[in-house]
Amino acid sequence: MKLSHRITHLTPSGSDGWDIFYKARAMVAAGQDVIELTIGEHDIRTHPDILAAMHTSAIGGHTGYAAIPGTPALRKAVADRIQTRTGVPTAADNILITPGGQAALLATHTAVLNPDDTALFIDPYYATYPGTIRAAGGIPQAIQASPATGFQPRATDIARQAVNAKSLLINTPNNPTGAVYSRNTLQDIADTCIKHDLWLISDEVYDTQLWDGSPHISPRSLPDMADRTLVIGSMSKSHAMTGSRIGWVCGPEHVIQHLGNLATHATYGVPGYIQDAATFALDQGTPLETEISAPFARRRAITETLLARQNVVKASPISGAMYVMLDVRATGLSGFDFADALLNTHHIATMPGESFGTSAAGHIRVAMTIKDATYETALQTLLDFATIKAA
Ligand code: PMP
Q1: Are the C-beta atoms of 202 and 174 separated by less than 8 Å?
Q2: Beta strands in 210-283 (DSSP E)
């Protein structure tokens, strides 16, 4: 019995880029101490008050099927948040609640792609992007963003590949690079989408993690973009709710109606008690979001301090998200070889830049997701290691 091409070709290269991560996990399982700077997950757990709201809802009986596009209360809370942050009129009917941002990525690509349509995305990219596009029946096509531009994609590169494409997926603040796209970059992207009639899928799951003092800009708020932009949101990063699997799509009402129909056939909705907990969390407003993002801001400052004391490892601007993309090319090693050697020698696990495409070759991604003191020591060890390798 043969499986479908679609499922067997989801990750065609065989390696999913997580080799170092798996190796580190195997070392941990074998009882070794490993400092993991690999995974994009907070070192804190979901806030007890959010869990209490979840418990109250479940005990109160919200354990049956919930409304499929999302509860009216959560759809409205998400819409209000987006309207407040972007100024774009947004109602509950513009929102579909999904089991996490990942489900929203698959749903939006399913909504805009016919079989074998070309779907663009930016390299370096979040590991699931090409597979998600394939799962939706599309053909993923990467646009390179270079370290020389701080991993901001260039309009000319997008325009060149936009011909015949159906959609463009962007992510700002960015995983894995920590880049935040400038207003100019976003306007160039918007102009290209309008000129070439592309859907823009804007992954904004890190929208509470910006470190330069500049506000998050959603491309949906740029002129004439609201009708062609589908925004991906999630409570995973903003509220440390990764395991609750709760996110959304924000887009034109007619698209959300179709996506509701897809949800009926794909997920049949999201648990009501999780949605109630998410509504509670959003009702807490920005103070809770700031509390949850604060550790990354602190570790970003630690990173800047340690980097300034040496000149072997260079960092791309650390503007947002919980990651630092370090350029280790001065060591003469690939990102993979550097990460592998660092793991073997010092039991520190990082992600090779090559795990995220081709543009971040010779880099490693460091997740700032461990306690400050351990983070500082690990980063210093990493920098010393690079200095020895470069000598
Ligand atoms: N987009 C990006 C860029 C991510 O980094 C992640 C998670 N690491 C997701 C989407 C999906 O997150 P979730 O499904 O937990 O909302």
Answers
A1: no
A2: 229-234, 247-250
Report if pTM > 0.90: yes
Q: Is 359 in the pocket of ligand 1 (CB under 6 A)?
A: no
Residue 137 has pLDDT above 80, yes or no: yes
Report the separation in Å between the CA atom of 197 and the middle of ligand 1, taken as the mean of its atom positions.
Answer: 26
Residues of the chain with CATH 3.40.640.10: 64-284
Q: Return residue ranges of the chain for CATH 3.90.1150.10.
A: 5-45+287-390
What spacing in Å lies between the alpha carbon of 223 and ligand 1's midpoint?
27
CATH fold for domain 64-284: Aspartate Aminotransferase; domain 2 (3.40.640)
* CB 40 near ligand 1, within 6 Å: yes
204 in ligand 1 pocket by Cβ < 6 Å?
A: no
DSSP string, 147-197: GGGTTPPPHHHHHHHHTTEEEEEEESS-TTT-----HHHHHHHHHHHHHTT
Interaxial angle between packed helices 48-59 and 272-283, expressed in degrees from 0 to 180 and rounded to the nearest 10 = 140
Just give the CATH number of 5-45+287-390: 3.90.1150.10
- Closest ligand 1 atom to Cα of 174: 3
The rounded distance, in Å, linking the Cα atoms of 201 and 357 is 19
Report the share of the chain in percent with pLDDT over 90: 95
Give the pLDDT confidence score for residue 17 in this predicted structure: 76
Ligand 1 centroid – CA 102 distance (Å): 6
Q: Ligand 1 pocket check: which of 125, 175, 201, 239 to mutate, most ligand atoms within 8 Å of Cβ?
A: 175
Is the predicted pLDDT of residue 69 greater than 90, yes or no? yes
Predicted local confidence at residue 16, as pLDDT: 67
- Centre of ligand 1 to C-alpha 175, Å, is 9
Site to substitute for ligand 1 among 16, 21, 98, 102, most atoms within 8 A of C-beta = 102
The per-residue pLDDT for range 165-208, each reduced to its tens digit, is 999 999 999 999 999 999 999 999 999 999 999 999 999 999 99
| Residue 12: per-residue pLDDT | 74
